[in-house]
Amino acid sequence: MKIAVIAGTSDATEFIKNISGNHEITAFVATDYGREILKNNKININIGRLNKQEFLKKLIYFDYVVDASHPFAEEVTKIVKSVCQELHVKYLRLIREKINYDYDKIIIADSKEKACMLLSQMTGNILFTTGVKSLNFYENHIKNFAKRAWIRILDTQDSRKIAENSKANIIYALPPFLEQDLLEIMIKHDIKILVSKDSGEKGGLLEKIKIAKKFDIPVILIKRPEETGMQLKEILTYLEEFSCQN
Predict the structure, then answer these.
(1) Does pLDDT of 244 surpass 70?
(2) Phi, psi dihedrals of residue 105, rounded to the nearest 5°
């Protein structure tokens, strides 16, 4: 079978490493960093951000599309799902397991707008681990952002280009994001509030919460979009069973 994987996440990497070698796999990644994390796998890699028309031209040749994009990459998921419906290509959404976080200082925000409202009522330095795409939004909606906010983003050419005109205190880094590194950031910048997306265990959230507990500080947690799909083992089993039948 020909399988397209909407990749660039640890979920996609794990799926590709565990799928049977009997399939032809093509990973679609937006950036060179996405290609780098997959370079040791024997697969085809398509690099670049695609719009709907471009996806229509690319995905027509596949039997299955496994959407392993980030839980917050809603626009990509919307486009790919629509394209698969038009092409009559089977679409499978790989979703992360939801976790109940054991910390009484987690404050759930339904959106980044809600997070800004909460942060405007709080004092102290803030560490954002929400990625570069939301940098400009927070910078424009939080008072004294340049003085009280630090943001950790991927140290890639794309991220640096997006952030090049920002006056924010930026910490460039690449995974793995170690607990000790986060601890040092918290101490160095006297962080009093941590902001994160609910990206699950794969997004390093458990480590973030563990550090927040050590400092007894609140965590503003951006709620994950609601979605349906299958977890890794379910998708792997589904594809192997289908392969055996054919």
Answers:
(1) no
(2) -105, 20
Taking phi over 0 as left and psi of -120 to 50 as alpha, with beta for the rest, 190 belongs to left
Q: Which amino acid is at 20?
A: S
Determine the pLDDT at residue 246: 60
Nearest CA among 94, 70, 122, 103 for reference residue 207? 103
d(C-alpha 35, C-alpha 78), whole Å: 22
For residues 195 and 127, the answer to whether their CB atoms sit within 8 Å is yes
- Computed over its alpha carbons, how large is the radius of gyration of the chain? 19
**Do residues 230 and 94 make contact, with C-beta atoms less than 8 angstroms apart?**
yes
- Which letter does DSSP use for residue 230 in this model? B
Name, in order, each residue with C-beta under 8 angstroms of 121's C-beta and a sequence gap of 6 or more. Answer: none
Peptide bond into 176 cis (omega under 30): yes
pTM: 0.91
Other Cβ atoms within 10 Å of 100 Cβ, number: 4
Distance from C-alpha of 145 to C-alpha of 158, rounded to nearest angstrom = 22
- Look up residue 104 and give its two tokens: 């009484």
